[in-house]
Amino acid sequence: MRYTYFKGNCAGRGMSLERNRIHLGDALCLLEGVADDSVDLIVCDGPYDVTQNAWDQIANIQEFNLELIRCFASKLKAGGSLYLFGKPNCIDFIDYRPYLTLKSKIVWYQPSRLAQGRVNYTNNYDIICYFVKGPKPNRYNLDAIRVAQLVELEHRRRCERVPSVKNGKFGKTKFNGKGKNPGDVWGDIKQLTYKSKELVSREALNTIQKPLKLIERLVLASSNPGDLVLDPFAGVGTCPVACKQLGRDFIAFEINPEFVDLANSRLRRVEQQLSLGI
Ligand SMILES: C[S@@+](CC[C@H](N)C(=O)[O-])C[C@H]1O[C@@H](n2cnc3c(N)ncnc32)[C@H](O)[C@@H]1O
User: Fold this and answer.
1) Do residues 145 and 93 lie in contact, with contact meaning Cβ atoms separated by under 8 Å?
2) Ligand 1 within 6 A of 256 CB?
3) All structural domains of the chain
4) Can you give the C-alpha Rg of the chain in angstroms?
């Protein structure tokens, strides 16, 4: 059966949700308990319309995402950021511009996918749509997310005078010893496999538990310590774990009680490690 998103009677209406907790229930209902203009960052890793999970069978994923974008826009502060995960077509043919500004479509590249297409090119990437409320983000902490510059010295010397991307004029591009901007194609963070130590359960792989490093990059780039991060589809709690480790507050939602338990166990482990200074 394929679902059309239905916004029914919401228990979340009118209540104020506690921070630093994973709330059990339906994301769009619970969202009503989040104050308008209160959130610095939203990490939305929800349905993709690709797996066999009932919650992932969406009649029209683009319309579903548009509804999410509309709802999230009112919860974000001016200059707040949204990262929306999906397949390459996840925001095709919808007009999100009345709500948010699309800054980048980040390609999360995974060359080692096992499934091989026979009638088309194998899809080797997910999209992470990076939106901002208004023209400019409040936060973009580039220094926190720089990646290693893998260039030889000679190449580096040649590259130091390169045409500017904007006007084609030659200008000096400084080599930054702290690393480079990760760009919008991320091939350096691998998808989890059955062998990954951080995998919480086999079932979590089916619902696509994300690597902590990936979520950490988003949290580091687009929030500061003490900021409020919203994770509407928390799964086994990767984003709440990243927030706890990085000193951000979070509000998270998850509809599957077993995942909420797994996520809470992960959070307890992080708390223990932090209290021991590990
Ligand atoms: C792609 S997974 C998120 C994985 C998560 N980022 C992690 O690393 O564990 C999407 C999650 O959304 C949950 N979900 C689906 N529909 C939901 C809804 N309407 N409200 C709340 N949670 C929902 C699913 O149970 C699933 O755990």
Assistant:
1) no
2) yes
3) 21-143+182-275 (3.40.50.150), 147-180 (no CATH)
4) 20
